[in-house]
Write a structure and sequence with these properties.
Distance between the termini: 29 Å
Largest sheet: 3 strands, parallel
Radius of gyration: 15 Å
Order of helices and strands: HEHEEH
Length: 100
């Protein structure tokens, strides 16, 4: 799984489907996935979008070309340059500064 994770290109989302016994492997995967995706989910399903020229939403022009107002399409990747959000992530897999 680590080799596959390392081979992935940048994505909007990455999803881990796991059980409690998978926590150790998931901890090793998290740093890789955090570098590859803007949102990391646990045991959930992201929306089916792709970062491509043909995919846009956010309203009529100029919202559709404003990277701050669209969450899909080639301009949207700018929204996810470094912040990473976590959805449904078990506390054991979150960075220490988020579990306080």
């Amino acid at each position: 799984m680590l080799a596959i994770a390392h081979s992935l290109q940048g994505q909007l989302t990455a999803t881990l489907h796991l059980e409690a016994d998978d926590t150790a492997l998931a901890r090793r995967l998290m740093p890789v996935l955090e570098r590859k995706a803007g949102r990391v989910l646990a045991n959930g399903y992201p929306t089916g979008v792709e970062v491509c020229d043909a995919m846009v939403h956010g309203g009529p022009y100029p919202a559709s070309t404003n990277f701050g107002a669209t969450s899909v399409g080639t301009m949207s990747i700018r929204r996810f340059l470094r912040p990473v959000s976590y959805q449904n992530m078990p506390d054991a897999l979150l960075p220490a500064d988020l579990t306080g």
